[in-house]
Design a protein that fits this description.
The structure holds 2 protein chains of 2 kinds. Chain A has no helices and 11 strands. Chain A is mainly β. The chains are: A mainly beta, B mainly beta.
């Protein structure tokens, strides 16, 4: 059974540009969450989507947005990139809302120059 | 604000030398506490979920326990392949409807042969 997949694996962007990251959850999972992990820190919650609706948002600026599609895959968009946006972006899926295990993908390494 | 503090930040052990990692948490109503393992450059790998004080779970050489203020990850007779960063995360009851996890910074564990 395939796990959570993310694309691309690595990405290099320039300050001010826009980026779109993609995630496909485990088959049957309805909830997708996005996290940002800066080197040396634990992941930080950005968004949760469930049944195509935003269910929660962490402490991130409006430059960050996301959406979930009918097949439960998801996109994370970041506008007006800053150097501080350089991080590993992780997608996690769980089969439903609530205190269920969240399974993480391999992440997308974003470097902003 | 939910907080998770892990100690020590780094731990170096000899193969076979048992030890424990600590995770102290402050949360407004614990829905669940999660342990993950993360290898360099990869996404976190789910290990355990604990829901209430007194609960224990085991998997191979790992055992997780939970009290009202902290959780321990006990590693018995570790092997070099147990080397990784171990992350602790909490999910709060008062998450505003979101299931986002609050992570600690992790404990970087090195097992020397």
């Amino acid at each position: 059974d395939a796990g959570v997949t993310q694309s691309p694996t690595h990405l290099i962007k320039t300050r001010g540009q826009h980026v779109t990251l993609r995630c496909s959850p485990i088959s049957g999972h309805k909830s997708v969450s996005w996290y940002q992990q800066v080197l040396g820190q634990g992941p930080q919650f950005i968004f949760q989507y469930y049944e195509k609706e935003e269910r929660g948002r962490g402490n991130f600026p409006d430059r960050f947005s996301a959406r979930q599609f009918p097949n439960y895959s998801s996109e994370l968009n970041v506008n007006a990139l800053l150097l501080g946006d350089s991080a590993l972006y992780l997608c996690a899926s769980s089969w439903d809302r609530g205190a269920y295990e969240q399974y993480f993908g391999p992440g997308t390494r974003l470097t902003v120059t | 604000e939910d907080q998770v503090t892990q100690s020590p930040e780094a731990l170096r052990l000899q193969e076979g030398e048992s030890s424990s990692l600590n995770c102290s948490y402050t949360v407004s109503g614990l829905r669940g506490l999660f342990w993950y393992r993360q290898d360099p450059g990869k996404g976190p790998e789910f290990l355990f979920t604990l829901y209430s004080a007194g609960e224990e779970k085991e998997k191979e050489r790992l055992k997780a326990t939970l009290t009202k203020k902290e959780s321990f990850l006990h590693i018995t007779a570790p092997k070099p392949e147990d080397s990784a960063t171990y992350l602790c995360a909490v999910q709060a009851e008062s998450g505003g409807g979101a299931d986002g996890l609050t992570f600690g910074k992790g404990t970087h564990l090195i097992i020397q042969p």
